[in-house]
Inverse folding.
């Protein structure tokens, strides 16, 4: 279970590595995702990160779709990074591991690891930084209910494992 | 100039081929658009058709974006077809030719031809059928101002020629 | 089981509807697949058709990837059609049904149906026509082993059901 | 003009900022590039970076396509970063500025800035790190002719300005 600590200031901190919860999502590489080098085009790893994020939310008990529709809140991306270790290829079974590294009042930081399942090989690792906003792009605090769901850890680990 | 005839019933007809106006749009093939076969992935031709459509509107004097934002009207796609004649390759200079084959009260039919500019080779030809709707997906009649703009022909042929 | 009949001429025919075998593939709509209309962008249905095709092959006992790598054969697309019935939305659970409607010496014709699983609603139906070629794009006959695998029907219906 | 200095060791260094050459590429946002938030999906900025890179090469006198076809060399991506400052929207005219920040024996580092042309607003900035490899993914030194072309600066600034 991830522990969230409310500091005197405006930060909520998820304590570092030992307590971090990773959720697993699997997908299979699409032909559309390859390029003429015969490997997955580099921008598609960011698409896979997003699938991991969506799944992380679902496994923590809420649909990101509902967060948009019901609360009018958006998880805008402020920064993305990816380090490419080895190429992914068409029809590979892929594992995307996702964890919420940091939860602040208005900021979420996710970490990702991408593996080829057959060989257990790390293909890429990355990070995305997000800001919670309303429909007009103004920063908003993450509502307590989501903070609590993140803190409680993944309750539905089986729900989301499909890309 | 295309001629539009208002029939007694509910149809507006653009008279057939001789009067049809084609608009030209150019683009260069992106690495992201190729697949491991070394050619442009087949779904991307539909993306190019959409670029041709956007450009067709602009060359007829309006931005499709404004149609959505100002009039709350959407050109939903009801059908798409593409016949692939020859592969497009990375970095090819492409010409997309677009024409509005049919204008009915609530329906638009576009035709497309895709050429490799260097060889003047026809790579693909296709067709999309669209229904005009409001934000909630309910069919709406195409407002007269757009009908008139389509009928007047392309006034700004130089404005749109970039993908 | 699909029946294939060798006619005196050069055609192999899979007999029509009653015997046609459909394979099922499921996927979940990605955020990346939506557009600003709030629905899945129309070209992505062709990506889903391709996922259905890959899966159809796998459920019939071979990986399309091996066909490319081991036999140097490619299933080039010659034509695509899609009729859009209702919009697909982010996070929807989608069922893609695929069937091989026609097998000729050098030509394959696939049919597709796309459903929203929650409502059992038909979202789109389509068709793709393919030509078997070698690496250089020259037409080739479909090898007997694949013809036999197609004729034998899906042996591994559980293998492929993940997008 | 960028200056490249051969150090005693194994590094070639392009001296820092004052001499750095930026090349300009323009493109218009496609409907396909938007998502249901009404803005350009975040992975597409990496596609735009790649368009900037291709264009940077062309403006320096060679086609990246030829580097692949004639020399069998590939510019594999090892790392990507993007900081998102403001959303890009459908039909926006975009300027992608690209510069080669670092040239080492086997490594290239590109910097990017993405602007909305109408408002001159910085939408994103990023960086990609690349390794030169052969067809099999083995690292190779950047051939002297390309190093010289990069050092000579953009000779054909007008050639590439179309996305």
């Amino acid at each position: 279970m991830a522990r969230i600590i409310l500091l005197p200031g405006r930060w909520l901190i998820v304590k570092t590595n030992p307590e971090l919860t990773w959720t697993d999502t699997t997908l299979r590489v699409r032909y559309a995702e390859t390029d003429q080098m015969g490997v997955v085009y580099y921008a598609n790893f960011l698409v896979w990160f997003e699938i991991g994020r969506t799944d992380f939310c679902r496994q923590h008990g809420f649909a990101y779709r509902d967060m948009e529709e019901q609360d009018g809140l958006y998880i805008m991306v402020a920064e993305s990074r990816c380090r490419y270790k080895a190429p992914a290829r068409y029809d590979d079974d892929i594992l995307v591991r996702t964890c919420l590294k940091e939860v602040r009042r208005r900021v979420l930081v996710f970490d990702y690891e991408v593996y080829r399942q057959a060989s257990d090989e790390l293909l890429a690792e990355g990070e995305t930084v997000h800001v919670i906003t309303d429909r007009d792009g103004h920063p908003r605090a993450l509502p307590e209910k989501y903070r609590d769901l993140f803190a409680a850890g993944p309750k539905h680990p089986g729900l989301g494992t499909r890309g």
About this structure: The longest helix of chain B spans residues 44-59.
